[in-house]
Design goal:
Layout (H helix, E strand, L loop, with lengths): L3 H16 L10 H30 L4 H19 L11 E8 L3 E11 L2 E10 L6 E7 L9 H12 L3 E5 L27 H4 L1 H10 L4 H17 L4 E10 L5 H10 L5 E4 L15 H4 L17 H4 L3 H6 L5 E5 L11 H10 L8 E4 L20 H15 L21 H7 L4 H19 L3 H12 L10 E10 L2 E9 L5 E9 L8 E6 L2 H8 L1 H9 L3 E5 L18 H11 L4 H18 L8 E6 L27 H12 L4 E4 L6 H4 L15 H4 L12 H9 L4
Helix pairs in contact: 1-17, 6-15, 7-8, 20-21
Length: 716
């Protein structure tokens, strides 16, 4: 038995660490209850401040000149947020693959190239006998289904029979531009919702585009702009009568942005974008509480990156269509008295004459939760909505009011890609295009970022909030607990913005002088570190080195939820932060730097010898696990947690620390290697794959032993 005790001792000590409750505040303390809600409350406060700031700025707009200055500043910020647009093609490649005759119309299946190797599939409806000059309609379909949907067929045929050209392209990730492999229940062994996969995979597409500094919205807008090119190439098209319709759910967002940025569009009809949403509720103070910039939804088109920071509220985007024409459109019943955006739009369009000459509205019936026929549910643009649009287009553009027509064709008739066209044109997948784009941009960055100062500046720009750490944060000191080899003391730093950073300092029992400190962070927070790295902590304490375990915002005690998937509170918060012009990782980096700064001034440690340890305890996927999985399938593959390792690298970039351990990092291929991304939203910073990881020289270490060697070296 005596011989067993030495072998069991490490296990027993580890268990003792694991059993320690590192919570800074007692469970019945109001501060403890507030911590999980703190980060979301702070984001809500900052969003309200942005709303009030924007409302005040618009209230000061009294003239056309003031509006146009207001508009131009916001459109410039909007363009920047979307990412980098390529140069428009000098001669847009359009390849017609098939043609079908219909009753009073022709259906043309075609593809067009908007970027090298990047093709858009589209259906073009033309009158069988086109008039001398015909209007053109471009339709941005919803996130529900692609161009083959019956409502879109009805819309195309109806208007084409009335003398209008109608182009219906597939959006990125939808229809023939699908990026994943799940078309039927037979494609995956477990149950999942086939019908929603294109929509759900917008999430992955946006993560990949974000990683290279672009955005899903930017790429959708670019494709729609090239759709305008396609219409303008049609014989007899009237360039003064180009109309862009954005369908009810997810189609209005890119349509509204495209119309604001492309002056060739004479009239925009973006459903459910710019004002009242189906889910909206009346607010006592809409200037402060209305979702002017969208919300933190996982689908990024609902809330544009940097919107609140740049002031491009959705009403300002669609208002930028003026002096061109706008139909403010809604899927369900709409009352102008409930929509705070409506009077703002009336003011904007009033700067250019009578608002009714260029501003109208259309809407359906009932509510989101109602059922037909009382509620005008539709998938794209229903007959109820089209009939409200017809008279306005008649008045504005002398377009005949069509007779509704529906003789829907088999979906195969609307497919554009043939085996021959694929072989000749070789369309590429998004992750393939982005892998090359990231490499190009990274190579350019290496030439540009030739000093640590430049690299810090660029990383600070993409992170969004890494400025000066708060001066003199309020300190709370809690209880002290004995642990193997040391004592654990509880602290909290309350920063000026009302965010509290709980942390513990484990100081070795036996140490001569002031100990060096290793600051250890993980997504699971300080409790996870105590549990998973007990042996490592004991190794540091035995060597006379203290350990500090902070819960940077969104981790440990400040963590609102454990899930990191598409629909989680973590994703929502991350998206909200991006709307506000920040990132979760940037704010966490600032929290970590705040703790480091406090340690430099703390009398009981050597503030000149600090190291940072970032770790991940995410469950590893087994080697035989298929990582290609639907986004709503049960038992999905495990999600990586590279955030803490990245925080450690950033600490080495922005702070003078002796050593860095960065565990749990994932290769770039985890984001761009396939359509399947298993990295949390918060860990993907705009443009991160174009900057490269911070170079730390010999400060980056592979293990605890090497970190101790670094800490034992004389202070510089």
């Amino acid at each position: 038995m005596r011989r067993l005790l030495p072998a069991l001792l490490p296990v027993l000590l580890a268990a003792e660490f694991a059993d320690v409750n590192p919570a800074v505040f007692p469970p019945d303390d109001p501060r403890a209850k507030a911590l999980p809600r703190m980060v979301a409350a702070d984001a809500k406060r900052r969003m309200q401040e942005a709303n009030l700031r924007e409302s005040k700025a618009f209230a000061a707009v009294k003239t056309r000149e003031q509006w146009e200055a207001f508009r131009d500043a916001r459109l410039a910020a909007l363009r920047k947020s979307l990412g980098t647009f390529p140069e428009p093609p000098k001669d847009l490649r359009i390849v017609a693959t098939r043609k079908h005759a219909g009753d009073g119309y022709e259906l043309h299946d075609l593809v067009y190239e908007t970027r090298p190797g990047w093709w858009v599939s589209a259906n073009l409806y033309l009158p069988a006998k086109p008039p001398e000059k015909m209007p053109g309609i471009l339709i941005s379909h919803s996130h529900h289904t692609s161009k083959t949907n019956g409502e879109l067929q009805d819309t195309g045929m109806t208007w084409a029979r009335a003398g209008t050209a109608v182009l219906v392209p597939d959006h990125l990730g939808h229809g023939e531009r699908r990026q994943h492999d799940f078309r039927t229940e037979a494609d995956y062994p477990k149950p999942f919702r086939v019908s929603r996969q294109d929509y759900f995979f917008r999430y992955n597409a946006n993560l990949q585009l974000t990683a290279v500094g672009d955005s899903l919205m930017g790429w959708m807008v670019w494709d729609l702009m090239r759709g305008v090119d396609v219409l303008l190439k049609q014989p007899r098209i009237d360039s003064n009568r180009l109309i862009l319709i954005g369908a009810v759910a997810g189609g209005g967002d890119p349509a509204g942005v495209t119309a604001a940025l492309d002056p060739r569009i004479a009239c925009a009809i973006p459903f459910n974008f710019g004002g009242w949403q189906p889910e909206s509720r009346a607010q006592e103070n809409p200037d402060r509480d209305f979702a002017w910039f969208g919300d933190g939804y996982w689908e990024s088109t609902r809330g544009l990156r940097g919107g609140a920071a740049g002031g491009f509220a959705h009403y300002a985007i669609v208002g930028s269509v003026a002096p061109r024409k706008l139909i403010h459109a809604h899927e369900f019943a709409w009352n102008p008295k409930d929509d705070p955006a409506w009077p703002r739009l009336q003011t904007i369009f009033g700067f250019y004459g009578q608002p009714d000459d260029r501003l109208a509205f259309a809407h359906g019936t009932g509510t989101l939760k109602g059922q037909p026929p009382e509620s005008s549910h539709c998938t794209h643009v229903g007959a109820v909505h089209r009939k409200m649009i017809y008279p306005t287009l008649k008045a504005w553009f002398d377009m005949p009011i069509p007779t509704e027509f529906s003789q829907r064709r088999p979906s195969d008739d609307l497919l554009c890609w043939t085996d021959g066209a694929r072989k000749e044109l070789m369309p590429r997948k998004l992750h393939e295009v982005l892998t090359d784009l990231a490499a190009e941009r990274a190579a350019e960055a290496r030439q540009r970022l030739d000093s640590p100062e430049k690299l810090r500046k660029e990383w600070a720009a993409v992170l969004g909030d890494v400025g000066e750490v708060p001066a003199n944060p309020k300190l709370f000191e809690g209880e002290t607990t004995d642990v193997p080899g040391g004592n654990l003391k509880r602290f909290a730093l309350e920063t000026a913005d009302g965010v509290t950073i709980p942390f513990v300092l484990v100081r070795p029992t036996e140490v001569q002088g002031k100990p060096a400190v290793v600051v250890m962070v993980a997504q699971g927070g300080k409790a996870a570190v105590l549990k998973e790295r007990a042996d490592t902590i004991r190794e540091f304490l035995k060597a006379g080195v203290a350990v500090c375990l902070p819960d940077v915002r969104g981790t440990g005690e400040t963590r609102a939820g454990t899930s990191a998937d598409r629909g989680s509170s973590r994703t929502s918060l991350s998206q909200t932060e991006q709307i506000l012009g920040r990132t979760v990782l940037g704010s966490q980096s600032r929290d970590l730097r705040t703790v480091l700064e406090w340690l430099r001034g703390y009398a009981d440690v050597d503030g000149k010898k600090l190291a940072v340890w970032g770790d991940s305890f995410a469950a590893a996927n087994p080697p035989d696990r298929k990582l290609a999985a639907p986004l709503d399938a049960p038992d999905p593959p495990a999600v990586a947690e590279p955030g803490a390792g990245t925080l450690a690298l950033l600490a080495g970039l922005f702070e003078d620390v002796a050593a860095i351990y960065a565990g749990g990092l994932v290769p770039d291929s985890a984001v761009l290697g396939s359509p399947y991304v298993y990295v949390p939203h918060e860990a993907v910073v705009p443009g991160m794959l174009t900057l490269g990881r911070p170079g730390l020289g010999n400060r980056q270490v592979p293990n605890a032993a090497e970190m101790l060697k670094r800490l034992s070296q004389p202070t510089r």
